[in-house]
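Example record

The entry below shows one chain as it appears in the dataset: sequence first, then structure tokens.
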Amino acid sequence: MKILLINPAPSGTLKATGVLFPPLGLLYLAAYVEREGHAVEIKDLAVQKKRDATDFKKFDVVGISTDTTRHREALRLAGQAKSRGCTVVLGGPHPGYVDEEILSTRKVDFIVHGEGEITFSELISALERKSGALHFIPGISFFSNGKLVRTAPRAFIEDLDSLPFPARHLVCMDDYRRTKLGDRSITPLVTSRGCPYQCAFCASSRFWGKKVRTRSVANVLKELEEIHHRYHFNAVAFLDDTFTLQSKRVLEICHRILERKLDLWWWCLSRIDLLYQHEEMVKTMVSAGAKSIFIGVESSNSRTLDQLKKGIDLEDTIQTVGMLKRNGLEIHASYIIGEPHETAKEIYETIQFAKTLDTSVAQFSILTPYPGTAIYEQVKDRIFKWRSPWSFFDMQHLVFKHDHLSFIRMEWLLFKAYLLYYTRSRKAIQDLWHHIKKHHLGIRTLFNFLREYFRG
């Protein structure tokens, strides 16, 4: 069959971040179905200079991967494909949690839940054979005789080495060279799936599973060499939720990078409790090319941290940040404001705490109840009744009725967080205007809110 996979363009604050990576999820999907003998094309609308018309009639199946913020654009594309006779499939971290809402639009034929490689491949095979055995494919939703069908969940893929590497040959990798680590172009890879933590604001452990499944170190190094030698990137971003979960595995990856003399700089995500008292691991990471690390600090308030189910200690955070600085790592710290019971005073205390930590980067976000998260279940009855509510789920807008703070007050507090943080020093002031533009704060935000509010 002829298959088109689409990555919808980011919009609003997602577009403003300036980070542009190839869509790894679709590249994995493409590699898998290509190995099964199907013809696959990928259209990444994030890199297109203008919105070109797509000739959907060339394809039998159109697959679209979307998150919450891009939901509206994904449905627009789905409608176009459906009107031209294509079978339309949606997947990604949003559709599986609102499958009935999406399927009811009649623009989408199937929803793929969670990990998609095997599920999508089996769906394609069933459609090609016209076998009608759709009810026996685990991990999909669809309408049958006017009724919603959700098949049994699919077991997670245990042997990640069995997956082919992402089909980077199906996109122009040069289109993704503008995102940098220092002065080097950076591109992503994933070495594991799953997260044992259950932060209330994150759906990762539900989407990928609580059990962490790892690729072999040899398999990871083979992909690193492909990225470096075939695609000529000399910086990588490890996008694992828990890259530093297993310190011995991290050390082995580092040692292999050093043994093979791979001139790579890299960035990864981690947690305070996975770095605290692991300075030797951090030193080895730095020697193997680690330059930057992302940590979730979230709040200075213990009660708020408990509500977010973050599971970290403030004193450990202070000690860990000091250790990372001592080893020369750039620290990207994230903070979440607007937990449902949080007061303005507590938010100001978090801002002051961020200034005290004085990390290279501070990212402030408004708590956003994404479908699939515990927070969503907690506040779903309080979400504002906008005509297109998902468009505002970008971590920069309050989307539910808060116990203490209005939408406008929360926008002001977000602006104030960046203002206070990036005026803490002369160097920080230079970054201030960048962050104001980056997060689209101001009159336009207020206007969009009021327009949607009165339409709701």
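Notes for this example: The first strand starts at residue 2 and ends at 7. The radius of gyration is 22 Å.
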